[in-house]
Design a protein that fits this description.
Layout: E1 2-7, H1 18-22, H2 28-43, E2 50-53, H3 57-70, E3 77-78, H4 88-97, E4 103-108, H5 112-122, E5 136-140, E6 147-152, H6 154-165
Parallel strand pairs: 1-4, 2-3, 2-4
Antiparallel strand pairs: 1-5, 5-6
Helix pairs in contact: 2-3
């Protein structure tokens, strides 16, 4: 299985009221991050069989926008195993449920999404991995221990797109 762990895209400023914070949706920049990262996944031709999201609005929106851009036709599944209070044991049960899939995209929150990633690839959580908003990590989960293949954030993706779209040759006129 190829496992793609994604931190939800930018949802603006954290609200002190927990109830209001759980309803916080993506801001314009966050929606742009989703489109950019989905195009990146599409360009890499990643196999996504299932998309699973945290129950919070910002994660669900991220999952839906990425799924739509990728042409994912199934329903985005929602799991409390990716919520703010989820444990690593919850996350492991989630992975077991989808063990027969080739590509699984999960969308969650910091700090638990990067803690899950660190624990997954080290076995003990010893890796401190920073995931900016909208970041995606690719883990080859069919190996033991699972191996981190790559980790990209929207800043890096933008930089790659900017350099790819520029021609490496100087412009010359044809007269």
């Amino acid at each position: 299985m190829m496992l793609f762990l994604m931190r939800h895209a930018n949802a603006g400023t954290v609200r002190e009221n927990l109830e209001l914070d759980t309803k916080r949706g993506l801001v314009k920049e966050g929606k742009e991050q989703c489109m950019l990262m989905a195009r990146l996944l599409g360009a890499l031709k990643v196999p996504i069989d299932v998309i699973v999201s945290s129950p919070l609005k910002r994660a669900r929106q991220t999952a839906q926008l990425v799924g739509t851009e990728l042409g994912y036709e199934a329903q985005v599944e929602v799991s409390p195993a990716l919520g703010l209070n989820a444990s690593y044991a919850d996350f492991q049960r989630l992975l077991e449920k989808y063990a027969d899939r080739e590509g699984v995209l999960v969308v969650g929150h910091n700090p638990n999404i990067f803690q899950f990633l660190g624990r997954l690839i080290t076995g003990n959580g010893g890796a401190a991995i920073r995931m900016r908003k909208g970041s995606i990590a690719c883990v080859r989960a069919d190996r033991h221990p699972p191996r981190l293949q790559w980790l990209l954030d929207p800043r890096t993706a933008r930089a790659v797109y900017a350099t790819v779209t520029k021609s490496s040759r100087p412009k010359t006129s044809r007269k």
